[in-house]
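User: I'm putting together notes for a lab meeting next week and I want to include a structural view of one of the chains we've been expressing. I don't have a solved structure, so I'd like a prediction I can at least talk through. The sequence is below, exactly as it appears in our construct file.
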Amino acid sequence: MKKALLFVLLLIFVGCAYVDPSIVDQTKVYTDAAVRKSPLQVSVHPKDKQHRPLTAFFHPFVIQQPTDSYSSLGNAFAMEFHNLWTEERLFPVQEMQPGTRYEGLNAALRHARARGADLLILGYVPYFYSGSTVDDTAITIRVNIYAAANGNLLWTMLQSARIEFKQPEDWIYFKHHTRLPSGPFNKIIRSIARDMAIPLKAWLPDPAANYEYASTSMQMQANLDPTPEPMEKDLTDEDGISRPTPKGINLDVLFDYDKATINADSLPLLEALAMALKSPELEGRKIIIGGHTDASGSTAYNLTLSKKRAAEIKTYLVDKQGIDPALIETIGYGKSKPLVTGKSAEDMRKNRRVEIRLAE
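Assistant: Thanks for the context. Below is the predicted structure for the 360-residue chain, given as structure tokens.
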């Protein structure tokens, strides 16, 4: 009976481990150490879903535990977090500036505004311990997310996690070793970052959402849905996430090459947009104008150009069509959201577009 139980255990280990068989010595079974986490605490969060795509500035983490490696650890921890959230595609634009010293919340907010970001992401590490290969490795991370424009606190999330060191277990016929990762902090931080991305996905619109092109006021009116969506109750349940995807349209607005000047051929299209915005269904509704560029040029240059083009369309709607400026927000995506990945003249033209979303 005991042999049967040991055989079952061996089969379980083999299903998720590396086996080093031996005829002379004990067979060695290696499994990777798991990350053990506390429940994610979300103590501050918005009540409603966010329909406007937001850009974010990642500040290096603030290490609150005394250490000689304050600056380098703050950069390393934040970069790992930043990379995971980039993979999760939470924001259309997410920047980090390594080496930025923490000089208080107001200074960090100024850094975010200087980068043109909507959000400041600021992480705090009140506790961490590196056990290397002889003890547990553990860390606690608190992430605050602020509105860069006014400093309002939008999110506070807290989680602790550890990778436990375990002595080899001798099962007579085989020996089980728990294998520690070469970079335990990296694995722990990525796991925490993945958990914290779940409630943000429930709040933020999908930055990868693309819309159909519209050319008439009726098409524009039909594709701009004014119905808001409430936040999901369980902010930490990834299976229950439904990312807000407000209805929107793409417009094939032409601009002079490398400029924000609207081509005269596109004025009838913008007149149709104004007609749709003045319809009973959309009158008084807030919209977001998003500018997109092709892939030529640097990221920073294209981001600036796309913002200028979105602002130019707002100026036209306000000055020429009498739309209330308070109803229009603008955002620039640069070249971060191409519709197609080709580099032909036609592909580049498709990526140079204007996106209209309902803002509420």
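A couple of points you could mention at the meeting. The longest helix spans residues 299-319. The domain at 217-358 is CATH 3.30.1330.60 (60s Ribosomal Protein L30; Chain: A;).

User: Perfect, that's what I needed.
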